[in-house]
Specification:
Helix content is about 55%, strand content about 5%. The protein has 12 helices and 3 strands; from the N terminus they run E-E-E-H-H-H-H-H-H-H-H-H-H-H-H. Helix 3 runs antiparallel to helix 10, helix 4 packs antiparallel against helix 5 and helix 4 crosses helix 12. The chain is globular and about 60 Å long.
Length: about 270
């Protein structure tokens, strides 16, 4: 008879009488005692957040919860229209749409900033001028490589994303304004000199920089964005059940579809 292997975990286990989560009794020590953001931070890092980290984390979750009829929200609503019995499918459809244009920018921005910071020889900048120099070089390198700078630009908020200054100010207030936000802010000040046009620092990008500065793992930041958007998608699904628009969206597109022959079909 072979021994059954153990499967170590620092997350949680349960017995007939008790549920343990992060070493605490879920029912006795956590329920009604800690907020969801606090718990999520601990699950990701195995550490308690400081009060400042908690406030920044909660602000990011709020900032990323919803942005109207985005493709992710439409995917959820249309899936519910097609399969009203499957709320899990509708929710999953919206989450699967989180990528390089929507939601994924949070992780992409943090990864870009991390690459720049990791390439600095010696100490990181300590003055706004030095941060600006580093930011110019980073933007110029991206342009030379034919790549976009993650976190720059927004399809709606072309004159400035309203979330960005709020999160920058809050991080400063809470003592959580670190190298990622310093570099990101410097990119906002200097990119026009390199690119020849002024673009806004978008909310998803500033969220990525803020999450990196409160020591969340960079490889999980897209998951954090999806965690936040889950609440927004549930709101869209609740509204779709109360006041549906999915069928109208479908019919508007379907009834206005225009058949356009392929080039080969026009040849004699």
């Amino acid at each position: 008879m072979t021994d059954v292997p153990g499967f170590p975990t620092s997350i949680g286990t349960s017995t007939r009488e008790q549920i343990l989560l992060l070493g605490d009794d879920l029912a006795a020590d956590l329920m009604g005692q800690v907020g969801f953001a606090d718990l999520a931070y601990r699950l990701l890092t195995q550490r308690h957040p400081t009060p400042g980290q908690r406030r920044v984390f909660e602000a990011v979750l709020v900032a990323l919860a919803d942005h109207g009829f985005t493709p992710t929200a439409l995917a959820s609503r249309l899936t519910l229209t097609s399969a009203p019995e499957s709320i899990q499918g509708a929710l999953a459809a919206g989450l699967l749409g989180g990528g390089s244009r929507f939601l994924g920018v949070t992780e992409d921005t943090a990864a870009f900033l991390d690459d720049v910071l990791s390439g600095v020889d010696g100490d990181l900048p300590t003055s706004p001028e030095a941060w600006d120099n580093l930011a110019r070089a980073a933007v110029a390198e991206q342009r030379a490589q034919g790549r976009l700078v993650p976190g720059l630009g927004h399809p709606v908020h072309k004159d400035g994303d309203p979330r960005t200054p709020v999160l920058l100010a809050l991080a400063r207030e809470e003592g959580c304004f670190g190298p990622y936000l310093s570099l990101y802010e410097a990119i906002g000040r200097t990119h026009a000199e390199v690119l020849g046009r002024q673009l806004p620092l978008n909310g998803a990008g500033v969220c990525g920089a803020a999450l990196a500065d409160i020591d969340l793992p960079l490889e999980l930041l897209r998951g954090v964005a999806l965690l936040a958007r889950t609440a927004g998608l549930l709101g869209h699904l609740a509204e779709e059940m109360r006041r549906p628009v999915g069928m109208d969206v479908y019919l508007t597109v379907d009834r206005n579809a225009v058949y356009t022959p392929l080039p080969d079909e026009t040849k004699e």
